[in-house]
Design brief:
104 residues, single chain, mainly alpha
Length: 104
Amino acid sequence: MRWGVKRKSNDELRQRFINLTVPQAQAVGLIMPDPDLHQDEASGDWIPGPINWDEFHQVLAGNGPCNRQRIEARREAHANGAWVRAAAAAYAAKRHGRGGSAAA
């Protein structure tokens, strides 16, 4: 990656990810959410079923199955972290006011 040239294609990287992930999930008793997932006997690769592009685009548009819960959790985390942001801002203002630097 030094010169910005990828050595492997996205398809190769995806296949490697699937080949590593499926056995790990199975080892801890998880069931993969792809009923068409199967292992190719010749190559040993795990082959996923076809991608539902309509569902994918709906998720990207914010209409995913857990979108409301995810957004609400994000808002709650932001609200719960307000005191940290306020404390950091007060500390920075105090350090700046004394002419000191906040370098660690």
